[in-house]
Amino acid sequence: MKNKLTLFNYIQFVGILFLFYCFTGLISCKTEQKNYDTLTCNIKTENDNLNVKVRSVIKLETSDSSLIGDITKIIFYKNRFFILDRMISKSLFVFDINGKFIAKTRRGRGPGECVNPKDFMIDPVNLTIQLWDQSNYNMMELDSNLTHVRTKHFEPVGLMNAEYINRDTMLVFAHVQVSDKTKNNNNLIYFNYSLYTNGFNKAINRLLPTSKELIRVVLESPICKTRRVIFVAPFDNNIYGIEKTKEKILYQLDFGTFGVNQADIAKGVNYIFKSSRNGSKITSIDNLHENDNYLAFSFFYKNRIGFFIHSKITNENYCSEKFFSKKILPICTLKGIFCEDNFIAVSEPEEVKNFKFADTKFNTQIRNIKEQDNPFIILFSLKEQQ
User: Fold this and answer.
1) Rounded CA gap, 180 and 209, in Å?
2) What is the pLDDT of residues 243-283, one digit of tens each?
3) Total structural domains within the chain
4) Residue 204 is part of which domain span?
5) What's the pTM?
6) Residue ranges of the alpha helices (H) in the chain?
7) Are the C-beta atoms of 161 and 219 separated by less than 8 Å?
8) Residue 251 host element (H or E)
9) Whole-number average pLDDT of the chain
10) Looking at residue 358, which CATH number applies to its domain?
11) What's the rounded Cα separation, in Å, for the pair 320 and 171?
């Protein structure tokens, strides 16, 4: 009898222990899944505790050598603006802080030339410019004057955007298809991102699976690295970071009824873009920027690119729609954050010409604007009431 009671008690103990681990496991799983911030992004936000100060209106020098068709990406580095136009001129430009043209890359297939530049980044070790040429799978290393240092050739890899995670690992945005090894019917799985070793000779992991239809959606600049690497995927309302070799949700963006959901995605890409054009949906989360004080990103709405700024200081969210409607800024696109509270925006000459700045010295500077001039860089800062 004593042995039976002991066995019974043991079974009871194991059962209670099992339930305890299941219960705590559920709690820990729930906590892990919610270990991110939800940002409420109201397109009609009316926050008034904001003071925007335009610090500089910079006219980029316009000449036959420096003519920019479309600004894909800007990096402010060593007091210079490095500007990529991957759509029209297909060149990388560098201007000084006053907008004076310094240099641009040469087009061609010879030494130090490129044909189809897709993205550029700062090498974390050598502190040089790395420019990817998709036409021949070359990574060009350039100094701050865009003088060619060396070129490395790699095995064919599709690359739209990339950023160094560290000196040995790179995150690449490029849609890839991989055979599903768990099934015998050779189904293909599509992914938005890949983690590669620095030489692209090994894919460490594939991230963010997607559908075959969505792989034709291209973003302009979906990866950002300042204090850390963050990234987004098409029609996905999350902002991700990297934890070890996997994606981790850092922020979930809540657009309310304006957000794209699974039902919208099921109706197809054309339906989503049509909904965005008519003002019922916000799409194309892109152009991420982050520092210790702010997180910012762009979006597409009513045939125009706008932007949101989230303050980590006050937890407030600010929308460009208010900046434009209140005539605080000319219509512009956000391209970067530098220092603590300074932002880089780009505005077309016509928008700048028709705008009246609060600081009249800028109005004097922009008198002789021509329609064919290069875009203007506008540096502005936010001063919040805490």
Assistant:
1) 12
2) 999 999 999 999 999 999 999 999 999 999 999 999 999 99
3) 1
4) 36-384
5) 0.86
6) 2-33, 262-266, 269-277, 320-325, 349-353, 360-365
7) yes
8) strand 246-254
9) 86
10) 2.120.10.30
11) 29
